[in-house]
Specification:
The protein is an alpha/beta fold. 30% of the residues lie in helices and 18% in strands. The strands form 2 sheets. The chain has a 13-stranded mixed sheet. Strands 8-10 form a two-stranded parallel sheet. The relative contact order is 0.05.
């Protein structure tokens, strides 16, 4: 019996009915021989299919694009992937530094899997290799080191945005991966670290960060450990994201040394209230500042005798821990350039303290977001009466029916501005969002 397509001779799967007494039944070797023939046929078909796929792919429109356009598409895909930061579960928000994010969808190696043409393009596009993400593992070996060396070689002399984290199962300090990164420290423009055991090793590059502009440190640090000083002398550092969990009675601020007067953009987490005020006193050139999970005063720094004034600060976001009263924070500062204020006070929204801050600073507050329980509707009215420049307001009340629906409807931006209430309360308001436990109005 032969195949009608390819002509290969195949024995029947079952012996035909015969009437002669000389017929011999197939043996196991006979079946093995037929299986080998079938495997060869399948392999030939796979090769034909592979060849057809390659021929078809050569006619796809995307391969007719100029190489420069393909390089740009790859770079945009990688850039968009890096901008999407996965959110940690709300229940584990204070342990976000320990959460393991999902692996990236796109990196330079991904494009090498598509086809040989794309691999050739990706391998010689240095822009795709400028973001090495390194996970220090327990079983780091020479292969990992070689792969990182190839990665850095393909990056050529480009600047590097480095991400460094430790495997949850642990890692060895003797890993040969980190010295490779350290050898290119003069090319770092940003570094993101979530592996505390390597911070002491990084101190070797303390004075070798000439173009570093952004740093992110998220880790746990103990009182007996030395402070992080590696970034203190980085001359171009302007952006910092710090989330330190400290143990042993020490604060977070004492464990991180930065060129504070250079910073324009700062995010800090798990600082006490007096540490936050001290940061504002040091970082006199801040433009954008966010403090999350502000803790109670620890008396680590003295209360300032004079107001702490940050001339250029335009955006301030402050989120307090539930048991912390927010009012004292606003009593110690003055922000003449403030245009955006975001307050998350789980204890009580400090309307009076915020009103005094805006009046004291003589700032033109344009946008306000207030979250937390409110004492009364009258507090909100008095607050808005002192905010004639406000154009956007977002309110998240944690209880029910503290603010009446009638008042909110009168405050709605589509309401005629000539109404008595709109002339007296937030006359320039254009955007209003409100929600509480029972209602969502004007989302």
């Amino acid at each position: 019996m032969s195949c009608p397509n390819c002509g290969i001779q195949l024995a029947p799967c079952r012996p035909p009915l015969v009437t002669t007494t000389n017929y011999t039944l197939p043996t196991v070797p006979d079946f093995d021989a037929q299986i080998i023939q079938a495997d060869e046929l399948l392999e030939n078909l796979r090769q034909q299919r592979y060849s057809l796929l390659r021929q078809r792919n050569c006619h796809t429109p995307i391969l007719s694009l100029p190489e420069e356009i393909l390089q740009k598409i790859m770079a945009i895909a990688i850039e968009s992937e890096q901008e999407e930061e996965p959110a940690a579960p709300e229940a584990a928000v204070q342990y976000r530094s320990l959460a393991k994010p999902p692996p990236p969808k796109f990196n330079a190696l991904f494009f090498g899997k598509i086809c040989s043409a794309w691999r050739d393009i990706a391998w010689k596009t240095s822009e795709l290799w400028s973001t090495p993400h390194v996970t220090l593992r327990q079983n780091t070996n020479d292969l990992h080191t070689e792969l990182l060396q190839q990665w850095l070689d393909r990056a050529n002399q480009r600047t590097l945005a480095v991400k460094l984290k430790a495997d949850p199962n642990g890692c060895h300090r003797s890993s040969s991966v980190l010295p490779l990164l350290v050898s290119r420290s003069k090319h770092w423009t940003s570094i993101d670290i979530s592996t505390p055991q390597w911070l002491s090793v990084l101190n070797h590059v303390r004075d070798q960060l000439p173009i570093l502009t952004s740093v992110s440190v998220r880790c746990t640090i103990y009182a007996r450990e030395q402070p992080i000083t590696v970034f203190e002398t980085a001359p171009q550092l302007t952006k910092a994201d710090i989330a330190l969990t400290t143990f042993g009675g020490t604060g977070s601020l004492v464990k991180i040394h930065l060129p504070w007067s250079n910073l324009t953009d700062l995010k800090a987490r798990w600082f006490s209230m007096d540490e936050c005020i001290e940061v504002l006193r040091r970082a006199t050139n801040l433009v954008d500042c966010e403090f999350s999970d502000i803790g109670p005063v620890k008396n680590l720094y003295p209360i300032p005798q004079e107001l702490v004034q940050v001339e250029d600060l335009e955006s301030l976001k402050v989120h307090f821990q539930p048991e912390v009263a927010a009012s004292p924070f606003f009593q110690w500062i003055s922000l003449p350039s403030l245009i955006l204020l975001d307050v998350d006070a789980r204890n009580m929204v400090p309307f009076r303290a915020v009103t005094e801050l805006v009046g004291r600073s003589s700032c033109r507050l344009l946008r306000a977001k207030l979250e937390g329980p409110m004492q009364s509707e009258q507090d909100l009215i008095e607050f808005l009466e002192k905010m004639p420049t406000l154009i956007e307001l977002s309110i998240h009340e944690h209880r029910e029916n503290v603010i009446s629906t009638n008042f909110l409807r009168e405050l709605k931006p589509t309401k005629a501005r000539c109404s008595p209430l709109r002339q007296r309360v937030a006359p320039k308001l254009e955007v209003l969002q409100y929600r509480d436990r029972a209602r969502v109005l004007f989302p």
